[in-house]
Prior knowledge:
- The protein is α/β, with parallel strands linked by helices.
- The chain has helices spanning 3-13, 81-91, 117-132, 149-160, 175-181, 190-210, 229-238, 261-264, 290-299, 322-325, 332-342, and strands at 36-44, 50-58, 65-71, 95-99, 137-147, 166-170, 278-284, 310-315.
- Strands 1-2-4-3-5-6-7-8 form an 8-stranded mixed sheet, sandwiched between helices.
Amino acid sequence: MTAxxxxxxxxxxxxxxxxxxxTSEWDKTFPKSDKVNHSKVTFPxxxxxxxxxxxxxxxxxxxxxxxxxxxxxxxxxxxQSSGLYAQEMAERGFVTIAFDPSFTGESGGTPRYMxxxxxxxEDFSAAVDFLVTNPIVNxxxxxxxxxCGWGGLxxxxxxxxxxxxxxxxxxxxxxxxxxxxxxxxxxxxxEARNELRDKLAAQRTDDFRTGKPALAGGVxxxxxxxxxQFLKDYYAYYKTERGYHPRSLNSNGGRNVTSPIPxxxxxxxxxxxxxxNAVMIVHGEKAxxxxxxxxxxxxxxxxxxxxNNKLFMAIPGANHTDLYDRxxxxxxxxxxxxxxxxxx
Length: 344
């Protein structure tokens, strides 16, 4: 290959970031801390999608810092729960970023409001790319936090990216399992999955005809009288001043109807048992989603020579959304101790 050809190929393979319009004002669902410095940053993932993140840097301490990338819940934006986690952990001495995933919030990617088990797992690794190359970060001390559906994605990212030295999955969903089997595995049969596939295939046809993907709808504006408790809990977060945000999918129109297609066949937890680095799963004892976290923990294996580097913590009396934003319930002291132990 000639020098010119090599240079030309290099240019073709380079990733050009999208030009995005970012919000300048503080528009979070939580108050701004005076203990950290906040800024917005952008970085590309491996598919050329530009991700936008809020970066929080401790005002005190000495670089290089340990660092944590945070995302979730599934259908939320960085101005909600993930930003609260990121700011809190920055107050505790970590450089943190809370990022919007591909196709969502201020991040790029089209069509909008789509999800992908592959691309969304890649989003975590792209955040790690940004952190390990940042001069104020210790590249050997980078971890991640995934909340709700992003908890399962965090476990998947940890199984594929050994640069992630420690992972916390908080109030996690296994999005593959819930899409393929229904809640509580109530639709775990070939017949039920094929019925779902038929509906999604028909929707694909309609979307192609109209040229615009249909939205599935977020948390309803009005709860039905027979709404299960977990839907009431979601409503209390996403539809009230507590957690509503205009860019949040769950607060508004939701994801595309066809979003479940890849999750049905994607075994998100298939390599969880091969994670050598530390993992901590935190779940509310009363959460409807508790079985996702407890079953994921059963797949983990303690790495030889790394005593007790896989942890499960059940929070007494807590429901699923309590771990979104209730700082009196989220075990930040335990999470901090975990990261300080494994991000050294």
